[in-house]
Write a structure and sequence with these properties.
Chain B: GO terms for molecular function: phosphatidylinositol-3-phosphate binding. The complex is a heterodimer of chains A (about 475) and B (about 400). Chain A is mostly helical. Helix content of chain A is about 70%, strand content about 5%. Chain A is elongated and about 125 Å long. The longest helix of chain B has about 80 residues. The chains are: A mainly alpha (about 475), B mainly alpha (about 400).
Amino acid sequence: MSRTIDDVVSPTQTNTIPADISGQMLDLDEDDDFEVFSKDSTLADGSMFNASMQTSPGSMVNQCKFEEDEDGDSKDIFITVDNPESHVTAIETFITYRVLTKTTRSEFDNSEYEVRRRYQDFHWLKGKLEEAHSTLIVHPLPEKFVVKGMVERFNGDFIETRRKALHKFLNRIADHPILSCSEDFKVFLSAQAWELTTYKKQGPGFLSRMGETVRAVANSVRGVKNRPEEFTAIQEYVEDFSNKISSLDKVTQRIVKEQKEYLEELKEYGPTYTLWSGSEEELAEQLKGVAGCIERCCQETEEQVGHLSDTLVPVLHEYVLCAETLKAVLRRRDNIQAEFEAKNEALATKKVDRDAESSDLGFVWGSLLGKNPEEARHQRQERLDGEIEELKVEIDKLEDRVEWANNALKGDWVRWQRSMRGDLKSAFLSTAEKNVDYYEKCLAVWETFLLSQRTEPSEETDRDNTS
Amino acid sequence: MVEIEKGTSLLRKMEISVAEAEKRTGKNTVNMQEIYTVYLIETRPVDALTEGITPDSLWRRYSEFELLRNYLLVTYPFVVVAPLPEKRAEIVWHKLSADNMDPDFVERRRVGLENFLLRVASHPVLCNDNIFYIFLTEVRNHLLIFNLSVFFLQADSRLKAVNAAFRVKNPDGRFTELKHYSDELQTVLSQLLRVRARVADRLYGVYKVHGNYGRVFSEWSAIEKEMGDGLQSAGHHMDAYAASVDDILEEEEHYADQLKEYLFYTDALRAVCRKHELTQFELEMVALDLACKKQQKEELVTGTVRTFSLKGMTSKLFGQETAEQREAKLQVLEQQLEEGEEAVKEKNTESDEFVKTAWVDIERFKDQKDRDLKEALISYAVMQISMCKKGIQVWTNAKECFNKM
């Protein structure tokens, strides 16, 4: 029996698991948050690790745990990504980031870890997590390459943007009740560079991974026949959401561009008033005042654009990537169901075969070779029965797998929606607040100027209004 | 928009306005059909304000205003004559409003023409001019146009003379300074107006792109349950924000027009300076001529030839003149000297008069300019404040909506 994708839990074969797991398991039993799910990653019996655990009644309880997990009080792992450094070797130049972990979780030997990781390592981690939990929603990584313009990989802004995104990526995983218990995650956070390299080399070989990929493609070509309505609804939503969030991403980037061009012109505007003041006597002071106001507004505009670029743009971009992740997750769920459906069809065919009156070629040959037709038929029946039994076992497993995948996705979907709402709401709120702040500051600048010019504000206003 | 001194005689008697603009078609000088705009000049006696008496009115087109202004320039060379609004829309922030037929342009021109008439009517000297009065009130103006055109043709050649390049030895320092000032002002105001137009263009872009937020929020709200309401109303505020820029920039156009008026005033300033140079030049020419004549007399009397002249050469070659010839020449010279002295005295008086009256008007102009531009800068600050207040309101509202998401 070949292993399905979800059976791969390579960590169990390495040496990074503490010898005495039993103690840990006891601990985890007492700890509500990690009741069942943490058992995934620490089970020694890797091949039998599968869906059956998760579809037990106990797992239903754990679905509810998704919601309880959200408050920050229970946070017991803190990760920061900072301190980018450039490394030069004979072959290449690359950037590593410091990953600092502080935790009280008992599956970690120490309470603090400091390691250096490069983008490749993050990419590996994401791949492993998606392999192990194909229908969970893993927060996206920043893109590998940036096509826009000629952005160098080693440009300061680019590195900073990436660093922030990597920081968010790890923290999202840490917040996830299932993903944060992944052994790969733990190794990523704690292993020294050479340890990680060794660790990465384990796992299914290239050929078996190819086999899995081929099967996945075959499944997606076959397509799923009876997708539950709720997943179709989710898929339609994801399509729409993807379009909207891409539009917002583009609109916001356009605003940043226009605002920057506005700023450029504004920078030339103020000095013109200063130039003019040089030719005037009575008006000189006033003109310089106006120039000063415009310059201060320039500074505020610069800050506002910066805020937009730092706060709203990255979040929108992240959710553009999220939309793609969601589409992939839905596809994978469909594939799991498709495989199950395929096997069901195969079973039905086999049953038909078994029950059919033979015009089986094999039977004919058998009779030609002198086999007793009655005996041949009986042999054939037995063979088919055996195959049917095997198929039934497989199908049972696949059915469990489908149910587990669906439940995992449903739970994570609720969770994702909540954090999407939270993230986008806070990003837009922050933008609106900054804009209010911007206008308030500019208002103060001009009002101060006006005060210095007038003796009686109300009288002036009246005259202005009638002219 | 303009601070007009109501004290001058004409405005005490009548109210002047340019009330409307209309399109007309007609044949032009080369007998081709053309479309042009005419403006309605309305005048009304001041004390009849309350009685609902309809004002007198007549229609005039832009070229007639130009005729009037040229007449004033030539007739009162010591006056800094108010400028007309642009003939063609030049420094614009939005490409659309570059069209002469564009209603916004026509409207702003109407305001500019009214402003011009009010400036002239409030000028202590110009307001008493008869031709100006006829311009405002006389309907049967064919004769006027004919006279003005003839006058203008004559005046044109005088204007050309004024504009011709010549060298003045001793110009009044104040006028030289004034010329420099008007050159500087022209340069800096042109630059200011250009940059302001570019800034306005960019600001327009920023606001309008936010309109896209409105559209996308609205679409997005349709697929969300909890966030739907918040998004939908936030979208409306984004639309309002995008729309608000039109009024903001329209107001700023008035500010730009105020600056433009003073940009065009620099031409009038330069014209006065040039007129001074012309009178000064004429004085210098006349004085030079007198000096020459004096020298000739001296040579004739003493018999010495100090300067090279053909006469001198020929007399050396062909002998001196007779005493009678000399006597005759002397008499002619004496006559010329007398005339010359008169001419110099006249020119001196003319020049002094000009400098005196011109400088009075220049001081008047400077005060007017300082006052007007001070007001303009204050109104600009007020506009900026209004824009900021609108921004605060919109984004505060949007923030409320985002909070509900």
